Structure formats: structure tokens, C-alpha cells
Amino acid sequence: MTDPKNFRIKSFGCQMNVYDGERMAELLAAKGMKQAADGEDADLVVLNTCHIREKAAEKAYSDIGRLKREDGSRPMVALAGCVAQAEGEVAQQRSKAIDIVVGPQAYHRLPELVGEAASGKRPVDTDMPAISKFDAMPARTRVGPSAFLTVAEGCDKFCTYCVVPYTRGAEISRPWSDIVAEAQSLTERGAREITLLGQNVSAWRGEDEKGREGGLELLIRRLARIDGLERIRYTTSHPADMDEGLIAAHGEVEKLMPYLHLPVQAGSDRILKAMNRHHTAESYLKLIERFRAARPDLAISGDFIVGFPGETDAEFEETLAIVDAVGYASAYSFKYSPRPGTPAAEMEDQVSTHVMDERLQRLQARLAEHSLAFNRSKIGQIFPILIDRRGKKPGQMIGKSPWLQSVFVESDAAIGDMVEVTIEQALPNSLGGRLREMVDA
Ligand code: 5AD
Ligand code: SF4
């Protein structure tokens, strides 16, 4: 295999993988490689994979099969992300087409590993080194109007269904000064919105320039002082780590958007305990109440799992009850998927696929009712949206509302513009608006 000249990166799964994909692209570009254009053949394909559910993990392997070219040759393939971390060299035994295996904590070494693969080796790097990969990476170059910024990685919560503590490792917080510098550099390069990322972002701790220790609230208040940065978001939070300061920030920091992704997973206390969630349905609802007291228009979003081992019909009804009690603006819901090495995979009473399908359908129908109701509540309102992509129809642009809804609008605005719209239409997953004025281009 020769040295690759161009590359393509395909990211699956969560927003952190999107962020990691961008960083890997920056690393390869810094070594003189070019990103392959759409439809162009790439010499190197990086599959940045997700291991959270079985379906996501299997997708990596089915994608590899499709990389073979008509003449029988294939590109150099790097398996990156959480499947790489979980499977290590076993991945290369499963598929001969995998030249490189690189875990989420080792991808700063990707250019080096590409060199090794070009000289005929099949390198595997799933180390979780003490020295942060972030220190070994070039400055940010790939920036859109809305940018991701990883501030914390890994998770120490050990929910019994979840692979993240094993694939992403122990919880670490990036240092304050690195985060502030990266946010500044993203803003200088055109980002107007930054989403702070962490598998458990609410557990972020650090020290500011004066040596004061604090949590995510302190960081958000500092980032809000960056000129040109207009919107701050963060995700994903754990209900057991939300403190008074962060709640207060939602009422006080104007740039902090009125949106909170706070997964609850299930509504039954027995199931929450078996999941090792460290909260009850009631403590979760009380927490939401406190957030809403600080910011009454807050949009709440959540994650749900149906069919956790042992979940009865009555316990599933409690999930529907918590959905009604919160009135989620948006949500992600999944069928439980047993993951190798997690405690829940060994539990008795695994729920049948048929029952899970039925529960998921009912849950999703209920969630859709709530998001439609939330979206309808915006009809007639006027607010700014940040344009982030083109619509399918000519002259149509799509932007994000403060509550993270996609808003369709006829406008000659460009990507990155903030425009003010009047909302005229609500669908379950989007809003339709009419342009009022350009706030500023
Ligand atoms: N099965 C199904 N869903 C899962 N999630 C995490 N692990 C599993 C699993 N084993 C869901 C949770 C989490 C989201 C990122 O994925 O809802 O919040
Ligand atoms: Fe998938 Fe979780 Fe890894 Fe993200 S952190 S890529 S969601 S397994």
C-alpha cells in the first residue's frame, strides 16, 4: 500500500464523534493530505465508529464491505472511534480490510499510523495515555457557524447498560485555559455558537486563571465574555451532577441557550436503580422544576431506553408518565441493546424484541405529541435563528432557534447569518418561519 494522498472520514454516533472526526481531518490536512471531494475516490477511509448499541457497532463492518472498488482494489481503512477501542486487534481478525485500529484517546497518532500502514504494517493503538491527545493536535481550522468543543471526556457513572466508561475511559476535564483558547480561536474563525461536549459534561471541573476551582457554570460564564460568540450550549448532562450554579446560569447568562438535554432513561424507580442511575423519577422531576424556575421557557430534551432487563408493562407505563410530566421538547429513544462487558447484559429477564418494538412505538408516538405541542407554542413568536444550512427548495434556508428547533425560511441569507423570523407553522420536528429582518450578516 502506498502513502495516501487524500482521505475521507465517516463519523457515526454522537456529537463527540463529529468533533473527533473534524480533529482527525485537521491532523491529516496538517500532514499535507487532502480531503476527498464528494464522489471522489479516497486513498484512505477513516470510519469513526459508535459502539453504543449493537446496530451502530455492526454498521462499521457493513460499511467496510462496501469500500471495495470495481477493479477489486480497496482504500487504506482506519477503524477509529469506540468500536476500535472496544475490539482492538479482534477487529482486524474479523475483517482483513482493516489496516489501522485507533481508539478515541489515541487518534492524535493517526498520521503516524497511516505511515506504518503504508509500509505494510497493521498498527493497533487503543492506549489511553496520560498525556492528552489535545496537546498533540494542530490549531482549529474547520469551523462552521455552529461548532462543537469537547471539554470533558469519559464517564465514571457506570450505568449498567452502557459501554461508554469502557470505550471512552475515565472522566477527564480538559484544562480551563485550553478550552478558553479553543473557544476564542473557533470564534475568530467564524463560529457564533459553541456547544460544549462531554459524555458527562456537567461533571466538568477546573480552575480559572486566578486558581479558583469551579464547575461548568464558571466556564460558561467565562466563555460568555468572548466577543462574537453569541450562543452557548452544552451536552450531555447527568441528573446527579447538576448544581445550583449551573441552574442559576440558565436564568442569568443571556448567551446560554434555553435548551437542556437531560436524559432520564426510564420512569420507574426500580428500573432506574437497576440501571445504577443515581436518581429517582421524583428527584429528576424536582430538578427540572428548579431549572424551569430559573428559565421558564427552557426546552427539555431527553434520552430513553425501553425494554431494560426485567422491565414490566407497569414499569414502562411509568416511563410514559414521566414523559407527560416533563413535556419534552425533543427526545431520543432506543430499544435496550445488551452490550458485551456491561452488567445489564448478564441480567436475567431480557425483554423480547417484540415487546420492545411495541413499547418503542408507543413511547415515540407520545414524545412526538409533546414535541408538536412545544413547537406549536412558538407559532406567532419572533426570534433570531442562526442559519446553518440550505433547504431543499430553491431560496430556502434552515436555521436553529434558541430552543434548537430547525426553522425553515425563504431568505437570501447566507450560512452563518443570524436572522429574525416570525413563526407561522409547526411540525413535529421543525418550524416554518417568515423573514422579518436581517439581525446582522
Ligand atoms: N442500549 C440502548 N440504548 C443505550 N444508550 C446507552 N446505552 C444503551 C444500550 N445499551 C442510550 C442512552 C444514552 C444514549 C446516548 O444512548 O439513552 O443516553
Ligand atoms: Fe458512540 Fe457513545 Fe462512543 Fe459516542 S461515546 S461514539 S455515542 S459509544
Automatic annotation (TrEMBL):
PANTHER family, per the entry: CDK5 REGULATORY SUBUNIT-ASSOCIATED PROTEIN 1 (PTHR43020), MITOCHONDRIAL TRNA METHYLTHIOTRANSFERASE CDK5RAP1 (PTHR43020:SF2)
Entry cofactors: [4Fe-4S] cluster
Catalytic reactions on record: N(6)-dimethylallyladenosine(37) in tRNA + (sulfur carrier)-SH + AH2 + 2 S-adenosyl-L-methionine = 2-methylsulfanyl-N(6)-dimethylallyladenosine(37) in tRNA + (sulfur carrier)-H + 5'-deoxyadenosine + L-methionine + A + S-adenosyl-L-homocysteine + 2 H(+)
MTTase N-terminal domain sequence ranges: 5-119
Cross-referenced Gene3D superfamilies: Methylthiotransferase, N-terminal domain (3.40.50.12160), tm_1862 like domain (3.80.30.20)
Binding site for [4Fe-4S] cluster 1: C14, C50, C82
Pfam families reported for this sequence: Radical_SAM, TRAM, UPF0004
Subcellular localization, as worded in the UniProt entry: Cytoplasm
Assigned GO CC terms: cytosol
Keyword line: 4Fe-4S, Cytoplasm, Iron, Iron-sulfur, Metal-binding, S-adenosyl-L-methionine, Transferase, tRNA processing
Its biological purpose: Catalyzes the methylthiolation of N6-(dimethylallyl)adenosine (i(6)A), leading to the formation of 2-methylthio-N6-(dimethylallyl)adenosine (ms(2)i(6)A) at position 37 in tRNAs that read codons beginning with uridine.
Chain residues that bind [4Fe-4S] cluster 2: C155, C159, C162
Identification of the protein by name: tRNA-2-methylthio-N(6)-dimethylallyladenosine synthase
Catalytic activity, EC: 2.8.4.3
Cofactor: binding details: Binds 2 [4Fe-4S] clusters. One cluster is coordinated with 3 cysteines and an exchangeable S-adenosyl-L-methionine.
TRAM domain: residues covered: 376-437
HAMAP family named among the record's database cross-references: tRNA_metthiotr_MiaB
Keyword Transmembrane attributed: no
Family: Belongs to the methylthiotransferase family. MiaB subfamily.
Assembly and binders: Monomer.
Domain Radical SAM core: 141-373
Enzymatic class: transferase
Main location: cytoplasm
MF (Gene Ontology): 4 iron, 4 sulfur cluster binding; metal ion binding; tRNA-2-methylthio-N(6)-dimethylallyladenosine(37) synthase activity
